[in-house]
Amino acid sequence: MEISRRGFLRIGAIAAAQLVVPAVAMARTAVQLRRRSLKFYALHTGESLTTTYWENGRYIPGELDRVNYILRDFRANEVKPIDPALLDLLTRIQSRLSTNEPFQVISGYRSPVTNAMLHANSEGVAVHSLHLEGKAIDISVPGRSLEQLRGAALAQQVGGVGYYPRSGFVHVDTGRVRFW
């Protein structure tokens, strides 16, 4: 079988691409292993945060404090620690969506008083919500549909994923795996 020079070069280019693409993906993954960053925009307060909350194998306490503050219960102005596993889940969702846009936050932590008030006014708010434990967040992402966001969250197979298209958000949490 004879291969022309052009055919030989085409085969070489295809082989090289198959080596380069995984190498680029591995390099990006290596950076992600060393650093995890997120952006938030709190819709109710207008506050923004860009943070690298994990670097070189550890969570950064001061950055976690900044996350806790922006995801606080703005109604009660109450801050509670946010589960770092929730941040890691958001990082994976962000990567799956291939976006650097901020997560638009509808609700992060909720105090018991706020959760009770919301529960009394809406069937969609659980009495024992994981928002009370800092393990849940209601979000949207600019430039991505709610369907895309829900799909990216479901693909993680971590925690709960709630889809609320009429309210304009997706709920994600670090509880048991489930969806609604």
In short:
Helices cover 42% and strands 22% of the residues.
Please tell me about this protein's structure.
This protein starts with a helix and ends with a strand. Strands 3-2-1-4-5-7-6-8 form an 8-stranded mixed β-sheet. It is of the alpha+beta class and 180 residues long. Strand 2 (48-55) and strand 3 form a beta hairpin. It has helices at residues 5-34, 61-70, 84-97, 112-121, 146-156, and strands at residues 35-42, 48-55, 58-59, 103-107, 136-140, 160-164, 169-173, 178-179. The longest helix is centred in the first third of the chain and has 30 residues, at 5-34. Helix 3 crosses helix 5.
Structural class: alpha+beta
Give helix and strand order, one letter per element, not per position. Answer: HEEEHHEHEHEEE
Task: Give the DSSP E fraction (strand runs of 2 or more residues).
Answer: 15-25%
Radius of gyration: 20 Å
Span between termini = 58 Å
The low-pLDDT segments are 23-32
By DSSP, the count of extended strands is: 8
What gross morphology would you assign? Answer: elongated
Helix content: 40-55%
Tell me about the biggest sheet?
8 strands, mixed
Spatial ordering of strands, largest sheet? 3-2-1-4-5-7-6-8
Work out the helix count. Answer: 5
Mean pLDDT metric: 89
Task: Write the topology of this structure.
Layout lengths: L4 H30 E8 L5 E8 L2 E2 L1 H10 L13 H14 L5 E5 L4 H10 L14 E5 L5 H11 L3 E5 L4 E5 L4 E2 L1
Parallel strand pairs: 1-4, 6-8
Antiparallel strand pairs: 1-2, 2-3, 4-5, 5-7, 6-7
